[in-house]
Write a structure and sequence with these properties.
Number of strands: 0
Structural class: mainly alpha
Helix content: over 70%
Radius of gyration: 26 Å
Number of helices: 8
Order of helices and strands: HHHHHHHH
Shape: elongated
Strand content: under 5%
Largest sheet: none
Length: about 130
């Protein structure tokens, strides 16, 4: 069966001399799986949206607090009272954790076997 398969592919010599795909191309999770899997693409898209939303909300909180401190209108004074340092701190911690987690999940869907991983794995092989 192997001889038949080699014959249909142009023979063993042709296969032996054909270019070997780059390691990044072979191990790239995004190209090999994520780009063709609707569930994975949706997960990556949702993580990007979540990360962007968390960062935008944190920025909006900073702008709101700055406006409440700089403008003396009654509405902004009430906003400033709502945005206490404790609430801001907790909000930033939660939003930061959400953005970090979304980013970590996204990394699972792309190439991540770089030189540091390879060297670590090679060190585990006994000489």
């Amino acid at each position: 069966r192997r001889a038949t398969l080699l014959g249909t592919m142009g023979g063993a010599a042709r296969i032996r001399h054909s270019p070997v795909p780059a390691r990044r191309e072979v191990l790239d999770r995004f190209e090999q799986h994520t780009s063709i899997c609707p569930d994975s693409l949706a997960t990556v898209r949702n993580c990007r949206t979540l990360e962007t939303g968390a960062k935008a909300l944190a920025l909006a909180l900073i702008v709101a607090k700055a406006l409440s401190l700089s403008l003396a209108t009654a509405a902004f004074r009430q906003l400033g009272a709502l945005l206490s340092p404790v609430l801001l701190g907790v909000s930033f911690a939660v939003l930061g954790a959400v953005a970090w987690a979304a980013q970590r999940i996204q990394r699972e869907f792309v190439f991540k076997y770089g030189p540091e991983f390879r060297n670590r794995d090679m060190d585990k092989i006994p000489s």
